Amino acid sequence: MKAPLADRLRPCEIDEVAGQRHILGNGKVLRRIIESGQLPNLIFYGPSGVGKTTVARIIAEKCGKTLRYLNATTASTADIKDIVGEIGTLEAGNGILLYLDEIHYFNKKQQQILLSYIENGDITLIASTTENPYFYVYNAILSRSTVFEFKTLSNDDICAVLNRAVGILSREEGKEINISHENIKKIARAAAGDVRRSLNMLELIFMTADEDENALLISDETVEELLAGNAVRYDRDGDEHYDIISAYQKSMRGSDPDAAIYYLGRLLAAGDLPSACRRLLVCASEDVGLAYPQIIPIVKAAVDTALMVGLPEARLPLANAVILVATSPKSVSAHDAINAAMQDIERGFTGDIPRQLQNKHFDGEGNTQKGQNYLYPHSYPGHYVNQQYLPDAIKNRKYYEFGDNKTEQQYKEYWDRIKGKK
């Protein structure tokens, strides 16, 4: 039985790796490390199917160390201890190179077991992950490793790999394979940057090709039919998930309803209704805020409706709410105010609550300041009286600035009049 096409086509040299010229091109850092023969601990991160495992295997073949492979999705602490047990044996005389795939699935304890062996050089680690390692990898391992980000492949990169694959399939079958350049591009687009996925799709299409005496014929209809079920998806626990969510909120913040609706569609096509709802609620408060304060209950009602009816109908109330948020006036005055206040708190700018605001109902014998002296605002004209509310240490701090939108300017005008500033 033949190995999958992606494995048969796997590069053996750095120059054969698709894309990643920003780290593997001539003179680039990772290439220089590989060519130097001095191998540090490495962490590769990026989406699936962009060459992380391939590059790790090329490095392993060139370094002269004993290669051991673990996938963190299935490996246990016992597997780690088995590898550690080989240290110092004749079989691992030059040290062990551990390729740890999906390191983000290892818990902190499992990562800590590796740490001491990484520190003394008994184990050289190459770890790969689809997650941002700065969030998921134990800091002590991270600080002892060099991190490289692998980028999503371009359509042109994938087309080049597919054309090479067609040549290999043709030689294996001893027949010409007739597939149009346009269909190659369609497969590349459907793969969404994942070269492994593109090769799997090509292999499936190849298996269904029509055949005559001289050639294998791949029709437009066959390609369309097999690609129909390959709409773009993303790993809901991976970095692409967060990229789409980021683009979704930034499009609403940037008042681009077309882009916001597109990214909403991406989330809903993947069935990720919770993320679509959560970021929409956040955006209503963070980005529209006091410029249109009534939007918060409106968006909440739309989200409640979406969660009640579920997909696919949920797209309708969410589309209304997303367009409303994207086209509403924007204000970050409340966002900036709470952030500034929290920064002061974190820096230790605190103090005693002013006595007039304290929850005191009697004065102890040792208290020299008798009486709370709280002024009740509703007893004064305009329901306002000037008194100190912040602690003495920060009594002159100003956190909130009225936004330049119509709503907040109306509030400002009102309070300027009440407080006698006009």
Describe what is shown at a glance.
The chain has helices at 5-8, 21-24, 29-36, 52-63, 77-84, 108-119, 133-136, 139-142, 155-173, 181-191, 195-207, 220-227, 239-253, 257-269, 273-288, 295-309, 315-327, 333-346, 406-418, and strands at residues 42-45, 66-71, 96-101, 123-129, 146-149, 176-178, 210-211, 215-217. It has 422 residues and is an alpha/beta fold.
Key traits:
five-stranded parallel sheet; alpha/beta; 422 residues; three-stranded mixed sheet; 49% helix; 8 strands; flat
Pattern of helices and strands: HHHEHEHEHEHHEHEHHEEHHHHHHHH
Q: Count of DSSP E strands?
A: 8
Structural class: alpha/beta
Subunit arrangement of the protein: single chain
The residue fraction in helices comes out at 40-55%
Report how far the terminal alpha carbons are from each other. 87 Å
* Unreliable spans: 232-238
Q: What strand order characterises the main sheet? A: 2-3-4-1-5
The outline comes out as: flat
Question: How many helices in DSSP terms?
Answer: 19
Radius of gyration, taken over Cα atoms and rounded to an integer in Å: 31 Å
Mean pLDDT over all positions: 82
Provide the β-strand percentage band.
5-15%
Main beta sheet: 5 strands, parallel
Structure, explained:
The chain has 422 residues and is of the alpha/beta class. It is 49% helix and 8% strand. It is built from 19 helices and 8 strands. It has helices at 5-8, 21-24, 29-36, 52-63, 77-84, 108-119, 133-136, 139-142, 155-173, 181-191, 195-207, 220-227, 239-253, 257-269, 273-288, 295-309, 315-327, 333-346, 406-418, and strands at residues 42-45, 66-71, 96-101, 123-129, 146-149, 176-178, 210-211, 215-217. The strands form 2 sheets. Strands 2-3-4-1-5 form a 5-stranded parallel β-sheet, with helices on both faces. A 3-stranded mixed β-sheet has the order 6-8-7. Strand 3 (96-101), helix 6 (108-119) and strand 4 (123-129) form a beta-alpha-beta unit. The longest helix has 19 residues, at 155-173. The N and C termini lie far apart (87 Å). The relative contact order is 0.07.
